[in-house]
From TrEMBL:
Keyword Ribonucleoprotein: no
Record-linked Pfam families: AP_endonuc_2
UniProt keyword Isomerase present: yes
Listed Gene3D superfamilies: Divalent-metal-dependent TIM barrel enzymes
GO molecular function, one term: isomerase activity
Descriptive protein name: Sugar phosphate isomerase/epimerase family protein
Length: 291
């Protein structure tokens, strides 16, 4: 097996801001970057047309490209109908920003897809994703749902009910291993028609956990990235670990991606650890072993 996919890193994983993070991404050997675009300097409202051109020019000057933006608005995802009025509109603006910066992919968490299609939450998620999917499709873009909160089978069942593939998948193998216990390679084969972006991350599952305790849900606490980071570092239920040290079988994961003809980015995400740059550098080298 010889991988030809480009290697990306999430700029925010370095914890040093966008510009410095871009430099570090270049320094560790990445070819592309994923950037959070929901608040602060990367909030679409804070980036004028000229600022967007300048940022794209700067990224180009480093020899990098954007693999995707992160448009994760937190909370309950799109499970709450009242919140979706502003969340759907903001998500559309993030797609517009992505296209201005040279990528057509925005990754996000939508909230756990219920197993029961007849539930009210399922209907609320469906309505939001239908609108988002049609908007993305009309612009030649994708909203990519990150795997992990629900099984690959439940996610595929949900995506199959939408009228377009404008809502697709950002495949994260570690989330599956740590939370649902799904096999990543089988998940790749199941979701093969929808995968437009991937994360490369590793983890171990220490005991069974209710996904709602991790990702939040209506009736539970909302999703909180700081809480998730604490959970993956404390190791009560699962632990994120450097590539090759966890439960993700990368031989079979990468082979499955090749099998389905995936040619997009392998983007490194490191949510914990006190030496992110060192861990990310090692992760780049780990993936390069497959080239």
């Amino acid at each position: 097996m010889t991988l030809t996919n480009k290697i990306g890193v999430i700029v925010d994983s370095f914890g040093v801001g966008v510009r410095e993070g871009l430099k570090k991404a270049k320094d560790v050997g990445a070819e592309g970057v994923q950037i959070y675009a929901v608040k602060g300097e990367m909030d679409p409202e804070n980036l004028s047309p000229s600022a967007r051109k300048e940022l794209k020019s700067y990224i180009d000057s480093l020899g990098l490209e954007i693999s995707a933006l992160v448009g994760d608005l937190g909370g309950h995802g799109f499970q709450v109908k009242e919140d979706n009025l502003w969340k759907v509109e903001k998500s559309k603006r993030i797609v517009d920003l992505a296209l201005d910066l040279g990528t057509n992919i925005v990754t996000t968490h939508i909230g756990i897809v219920p197993h029961d299609p007849a539930s009210e939450v399922y209907a609320t998620l469906h309505a939001a994703c239908e609108e988002l999917g049609q908007y993305a499709k009309s612009a030649g873009a994708y909203f990519a749902i990150e795997t992990g909160p629900e099984t690959a089978a439940d996610l595929k069942g949900f995506l199959d009910t939408l009228s377009t593939n404008g809502v697709s998948v950002n495949f994260d193998p570690a989330n599956m291993v740590m939370v649902t216990g799904d096999d990543p390679a089988q998940g790749v084969r199941l979701l093969k028609d929808y995968i437009v972006h991937t994360h490369v991350k590793d983890g171990v599952r220490l005991k069974e956990v209710d996904p709602r305790d991790v990702y939040g849900a209506v009736g539970y606490a909302p999703m909180d990235h700081e809480k998730i980071a604490e959970m993956v570092s404390s190791g009560t239920f699962f632990r994120e670990v450097p590539l090759g040290e966890g439960g993700v079988d990368f031989d079979s994961y990468f082979a499955a991606l090749q099998e389905i003809g995936y040619t997009g980015y392998l983007t490194i995400e490191r949510e914990v650890g006190d030496q992110p740059e060192q861990d990310i550098r090692k992760a780049v080298e780990f993936i390069k072993q497959y080239r």
